[in-house]
Amino acid sequence: MTVRIVDTADVAENATIGEGSSVWHLAQVREDAVLGRNCIVGRGAYVGTGVVMGDNCKVQNYALIYEPARLEDGVFVGPAAVFTNDHYPRSISPDGSLKLGDDWEAVGVTCRVGSSIGARAVCVAPVTIGRWAMVAAGSVVTKDVPDFALVAGVPARRIRWVGKAGIPLDAAGDGVWICQKTGDRYRESGDTLCEDMN
Length: 198
Prior knowledge:
With 198 residues, this protein is mostly beta strands. It has 2 domains: 4-162, 3 Solenoid (UDP N-Acetylglucosamine Acyltransferase, domain 1); 165-198. The protein has no helices and 26 strands. The chain has strands at 4-5, 10-11, 16-17, 22-23, 28-29, 34-35, 40-41, 46-47, 52-53, 58-59, 64-65, 70-71, 76-77, 82-83, 109-111, 116-117, 122-123, 127-129, 134-135, 140-141, 149-152, 157-161, 170-173, 176-178, 185-189, 192-195. Strand 23 (170-173) and strand 24 form a beta hairpin. The chain is globular.
């Protein structure tokens, strides 16, 4: 396996790009960023300084992943999605002087294993997107998303549960949910869903 970095991409010399990964046209991967194996960074995407991505992640065209974001294995970030990194963004201080890099404290977005962020969604840091959760296209996430939740809207709210296959689950009664594609069973307890091991 080899790493593919096209000639129009801008990848910092000290960024780490895992085997089998690809960085496409006009994408930028900043200093100290770490991409795992078999990752794809699409055209015009931005991966900020020190961002860490696990294996098998996809960052689609023009997505913006600002530091200190953390993406675990198998995370999908749709086209033009944005991860913010500042509680109270300002260009200038109260005295009118330009704010610099050390004038604020960066906060990040964390995406757990298998989670998916839809096209043009905005994740307002600090938030955590749970395991195998899905954020619908165009949503604005302002609070943590539980594992297996499908959230949508502005602000994003849970509208369904989804399984590992990414399709909405069907209720089977007594808090049990079933994936029609895989047959996997899940159990709901309060505001959480977990895999049913029974």
